[in-house]
Specification:
It contains 26 helices and 20 strands. It is an alpha+beta fold. It folds into 5 domains: about 190 residues, Hypothetical protein af1432, CATH 1.10.3210; about 140 residues, Beta Polymerase, domain 2, CATH 3.30.460; about 80 residues, Ubiquitin-like (UB roll), CATH 3.10.20; about 140 residues, no CATH class; about 80 residues, Alpha-Beta Plaits, CATH 3.30.70.260. A hairpin with a 6-residue loop joins strand 18 and strand 19. The structure holds manganese (II) ion (MN). Manganese (II) ion binds next to loops.
Length: about 700
C-alpha cells in the first residue's frame, strides 16, 4: 500500500465514527479499482479522488457525497456497473457517481460566447442533484491545481473550459473561493506570460504598500472600537486575474488598479454592519455613488455585504466590504455553506430543504406551490425544468422545450430538414421520430428526398416552429392534390357534355374563374377537388363561354368516369365503412371540404344520400394500371386453439398479402373470432387469400367485412 495516500480523518472532523469507517471502506474499494493506474504526473491515481474528497470535506459535505467523490472515476475506468455500485454503497451514491460520469462525458467545444451560457445551463440541468455539481467542481479544482503535468494543447482546452464554464458555475452557486481559484489557475494556463508578469508586479506592490495598508487598517480598527463594536479588519489581496480584467475592461494601468486599497470588516450581526459603516464614514470621506447595500438587496447568488469606497489617508481610494461572519461564509462557500454550518444534530433533510429553497430563490425559479412535504428526499433540483439542451452533430448546443422530439429538433435545424426527416440518430443509435430528447443527447437527422410531413407528427411535436411548418406543408400539399383531382373531375364533367378540358380556351377560363369568384384557375380547380364547387356547374359555365360551343350538338363521350388509382393523396379517400378494393364496383361522393370519397357501389352507409343528393355523386372507376395495395377487412371464425393465429397469419403471408391489423374477441368458447385488415391488390388477390385461409383446418368461416 502506498503510505503517501491514505484517508486522513482530520479532513472530516464532522463525520460520525460509523460514517468515517464506511468512507474508509469506499476508499479501499476505490484504491483497489484504480490499482496500477497513474496520473500524468506519475502519482498513483488514487491521489486524485482522495484529494477531491478532501476538498469536499473542507466544505463539510455529507458522507454520501464524500463516498461518491472517492468513487467518482471508478465507473469510467474500471469494469464495475452502476448496479454493483448501488449494491455496495447504496442507490444514492451510485446516482451521484453516475451523474458525475455523465458530466465528464460532455466536452465544451464551441468558441461562441452564447454557447457557453447554454452549456452551463445544460450541465446544471443534467446534474439534477446539486451535490453532483459540487463534486464536479472539486474534481475540476484538483485537476486545475495539478494541470502542470498535462500536455500544453490539452492544458489550454481544459483551462478555457474552466474559465468559460466551471468558474461561472462556481460563481453562480456562490462558491466565491472556488470561483477565484479556478479563474486564477485558468488564467495562468491560458496566458502564462501575462500571469507571470502580473503576479510579480502584484507581489512587489504588496511589499510597497504594506506599511500604508497597515496604517489604514489600524485607523479603521480604532475608529470602529471607539464605536463600541467588535470587528475583524483584514486587508484584501487582489487576485491576478481580476486585476488583469480591470486593466483591460476599464483601461487602467496596473498601478491605477493597485492604488485602490481593499479592506474587509467582519462584525457580529447585521445592525453592527450599519454601525461600522457609520464609523468608517466618520473616519474618511465617502466617495459619492459608491455605496451599495447588498444586505437589503442580496446578489442573485445569495451574496450579502455593505460596499463602500472612501478617500483614504494617502489620497487614493479605499474600498471596504462590511459583513457578518455568516454572510462571509455564504460569500466564500455559497451553496456549500449550508452543509458546512448546519447546526449540530439537525437532520440532514432540513439542511437539504433549506439549500433547495436557497437554490431555487437564487435561480429565480418559481417555488412549487405548497407541496413541501414531498419537496425532496435528496437534493434533487431540476434547475431548468422547462428546457432540454441537446447537441447538433457539429457540437452546437440548442435549447428546446422539455418533451421536444426528434421532429422538433429537425425543424429547429431547418424547415427543409423537418419536412423531409424520416428518422433520427440519438447518441449514434437509430431512433423513431417521436423519441423525446434528453439533456446532453447528440442528435442527427436522417432525411429522404421523397419523404413528407405526416399529420400524426402534430400529436407529439412541442415547438411552435415544427407545428406551424407541418400545418403549412400539409395545407399546401392538400391544395395541390385537390387541384389535380379537380382537373380530373372537371374533365369528366366536360366529357359527359361531349367536350374536354383540352377544348377550353384561355378566354373562357378567365371569364369562368371570374364568374365563380375564384382568384385563379388553380384555386377554382382546388375548390372542385375539395367539393366546394360542383364540376357539372363549372363545366357548363366553361362551355357557355367557349365560342361557338353553344350550337354544336354534344354527344356524351364514352368512358367519362374519373379513374381512381388510390395514390391521389389526401384529395381522394377510400371510405372506411366499406373499404373498396379494385374489382369492386365503386362510386364517388364529393362533399364540401372532404374532397372525393370513394365508396363501394353496394355500401349501405351511403344509400340514402345517393337517392336524396344525386348532385354530390360522380362516376368513378378503378384505374386498371394501379399497383397500390388496398386494405380489406376479414372476419374469421377459428377454433380456439394454441397456434391458430400463427397458422392463419402465415397463410396470409404465403398468399402475398400483408397484415395491417389484427384483433381477437376475448372469449373462451370453442370458437373465437379474429378480425384482420389485410392488404391486397384487388378482388382476385383477396380471393386468393381467402382460398388459402380455407385450407387452414382451424378456420371455420371467412367473411369479408364491408360495413
Ligand atoms: Mn476526476
Amino acid at each position: 500500500m502506498d503510505v503517501a495516500h491514505a484517508l486522513d480523518p482530520s479532513h472530516f472532523p464532522y463525520l460520525k465514527p460509523a460514517e468515517f469507517s464506511r468512507l474508509a471502506e469506499a476508499y479501499r474499494y476505490s484504491e483497489a479499482a484504480h490499482l496500477g493506474q497513474v496520473r500524468q504526473s506519475g502519482e498513483a491515481y488514487i491521489s486524485h479522488p482522495l484529494a477531491v474528497t478532501e476538498i469536499l470535506g473542507g466544505w463539510h459535505l455529507d458522507s454520501q457525497a464524500l463516498t461518491a467523490a472517492l468513487l467518482h472515476d471508478v465507473l469510467e475506468d474500471a469494469a464495475i456497473s452502476k448496479e454493483e455500485m448501488a449494491q455496495s454503497f447504496g442507490r444514492q451514491v451510485a446516482e451521484l457517481v453516475d451523474g458525475v460520469s455523465k458530466l465528464d462525458k460532455i466536452e465544451f467545444q464551441s468558441a461562441e460566447h452564447a454557447q457557453a451560457e447554454n452549456f452551463r445551463k445544460m450541465l446544471l440541468a443534467m446534474a439534477r442533484d446539486v451535490r453532483v455539481i459540487l463534486i464536479k467542481l472539486a474534481d475540476r479544482l484538483h485537476n486545475m491545481r495539478t494541470l502542470g503535468a498535462v500536455p500544453p494543447a490539452k492544458r489550454r482546452r481544459i483551462a478555457r473550459e474552466t474559465m468559460e464554464i466551471y468558474a461561472p458555475i462556481a460563481n453562480r452557486l456562490g462558491l466565491n473561493a472556488v470561483f477565484h481559484e479556478l479563474q486564477e489557475l485558468a488564467f495562468e494556463n491560458l496566458h502564462p506570460m501575462r500571469f507571470r508578469v502580473l503576479a510579480l508586479a502584484t507581489q512587489s506592490a504588496r511589499g510597497n504598500r504594506r506599511e500604508a495598508v497597515g496604517r489604514t487598517a489600524a485607523a479603521i480598527r480604532n475608529r470602529i472600537a471607539e464605536y463600541g463594536l467588535d470587528a475583524t479588519v483584514i486587508g484584501r489581496e487582489k487576485h491576478v486575474y481580476s486585476t488583469y480584467k480591470k486593466m483591460v475592461e476599464k483601461h487602467l494601468s496596473f498601478s491605477e488598479v493597485h492604488d485602490i486599497h481593499g479592506f474587509r470588516v467582519l462584525v457580529k450581526d447585521q445592525p453592527a454592519c450599519y454601525l461600522a459603516l457609520g464609523a468608517l464614514h466618520s473616519l474618511y470621506k465617502p466617495i459619492p455613488g459608491k455605496f451599495k447595500d447588498y444586505i437589503a438587496i442580496p446578489k442573485a447568488n445569495g451574496y450579502q455585504s455593505l460596499h463602500t469606497a472612501l478617500i483614504g489617508p494617502y489620497g487614493g481610494p479605499v474600498e471596504v466590504q462590511i459583513r457578518t461572519e455568516k454572510m462571509h461564509r455564504v460569500a466564500e462557500s455559497g451553496v456549500a455553506s449550508h452543509w458546512m454550518y448546519k447546526e449540530e444534530g439537525s437532520p440532514l433533510s432540513d439542511v437539504q430543504k433549506e439549500t433547495h429553497r436557497w437554490l431555487q430563490s437564487l435561480l429565480d425559479l418559481q417555488s412549487q406551490s405548497g407541496d413541501s412535504h414531498e419537496f425532496l428526499e435528496h437534493v434533487k433540483v431540476d434547475l431548468f425544468p422547462d428546457e432540454v439542451y441537446v447537441f447538433t452533430p457539429k457540437g452546437r448546443i440548442i435549447s428546446l422545450p422539455r418533451g421536444a422530439t426528434v421532429v422538433d429538433f429537425a425543424y429547429f435545424v431547418h424547415t427543409d430538414v423537418g419536412n423531409s426527416c424520416v428518422a433520427g440518430k440519438v447518441n449514434g443509435e437509430l431512433m423513431p421520430l417521436r423519441t423525446e430528447l434528453r439533456n446532453g443527447d447528440r442528435v442527427e437527422i436522417i432525411t429522404a428526398s421523397h419523404s413528407r410531413p405526416n399529420p400524426a407528427w402534430l400529436q407529439y411535436v412541442r415547438t411552435g416552429k415544427a407545428r406551424a411548418n407541418i400545418r403549412h406543408f400539409l395545407k399546401t400539399m392538400q391544395y395541390e392534390e385537390s387541384a389535380q383531382l379537380g382537373l380530373r373531375l372537371l374533365d369528366q364533367a366536360l366529357k359527359t357534355l361531349g367536350s374536354a378540358v383540352t377544348a377550353i380556351d384561355d378566354a373562357s377560363w378567365e371569364r369562368t374563374v371570374r364568374d365563380s369568384v375564384a382568384r385563379s384557375r388553380q384555386e377554382l380547380l382546388a375548390d372542385l377537388g375539395l367539393g366546394k364547387q360542383l364540376p357539372a356547374v363549372i363545366a357548363r359555365r366553361l362551355l357557355r363561354h367557349t365560342e361557338g360551343g353553344r350550337d354544336e350538338a354534344r354527344v356524351p363521350a364514352k368512358g367519362s368516369s374519373v379513374l381512381i388509382r388510390g395514390t391521389e393523396g389526401v384529395a381522394v379517400q377510400l371510405a372506411s365503412c366499406c373499404r373498396p378494393i379494385p374489382g369492386d364496383r365503386i362510386v364517388g361522393s364529393i362533399k364540401k371540404g372532404q374532397g372525393l370519397v370513394v365508396h363501394a357501389d353496394d355500401c349501405r352507409a351511403v344509400k340514402r344520400s345517393r337517392k336524396n343528393e344525386p348532385d354530390q355523386w360522380v362516376d368513378v372507376e378503378w384505374d386498371p394500371a394501379t399497383t397500390k395495395l388496398f386494405p380489406a377487412a376479414l372476419k374469421l371464425m377459428v377454433t380456439n386453439q394454441r397456434g391458430a393465429l400463427a397458422r392463419v397469419a402465415a397463410e396470409i403471408g404465403e398468399a402475398g398479402s400483408n397484415i395491417d391489423s389484427v384483433s381477437m374477441d376475448d372469449d373462451r368458447a370453442v370458437y373465437t373470432t379474429m378480425h384482420f385488415v389485410v392488404e391486397v391488390a384487388n378482388r382476385r388477390h383477396l380471393a386468393r387469400v381467402i382460398r388459402s385461409l380455407r385450407r387452414v383446418s382451424d378456420v371455420k368461416r371467412i367473411v369479408r367485412v364491408k360495413d
